[in-house]
Amino acid sequence: MTGAARTDVEQVELANTAFYEALERGDFDKVSDLWLDAEADGVTGDDDDRTDESVDGTADGDAISCVHPGWPVLTGRGEVLRSYALIMANTEYIQFFLTDVKVGVAGDTALVTCTENILSGGPPPEGGGELGPLVGQLVVATNVFRRTPDGWKLWSHHASPVLAETDDDEGDEPPS
To answer: How far is CA 33 from each of CA 28, 69, 103, rounded to the nearest angstrom?
Structure first.
C-alpha cells in the first residue's frame, strides 16, 4: 500500500482497485498477494484469548472463500487461487468498470460492495488473429478484506450476475 492513503477506507479502496487491476493485467502473482494468507500475513486472533475460527472449526486460511458467477462456493486459498489461474488462462481480455462502490470498515474487517461492469473477450475464432467477440456483463460483488501487517487482504469475494430486465418483462402479469 502507498503511504498516500490516510484512512482505512482509502486503504481498502486502494486494495480493492489493485485486485481488479491485477485481474485485468492477468497478473497472477499480484492477485495471489492480494488474497489473505493467514500464516504469511501474520493474522492472529483478537487481543483476548479467542482464536479466529469459522463455524466448522477451520482456521482463517481455510475460511477464505470465493463465488464466481455461476460457480459453487470455493473455499481455501489453494482452491480460490486455482480458480483465478483458470480464469486468467482462458480470458484473452477483461476490463472492469466499477460503479456503486461502497466501503465500510469495522475494526480489522472491511466490506466493499460494487457493481462490476465487465467487458471481456475470448480467444480469436479459428484461423483468425484478432480477439474474439467482446461480451459485456453486469455483476454485483461483495469483497471482504482483513487488515494484516502487510495491508488489507481479500478474505472473501462473492459475485453474482445481474439479470437484465427487458421492457417486455415490465408489463407481464403472472399466469392465472
So the answer is: 8, 22, 21
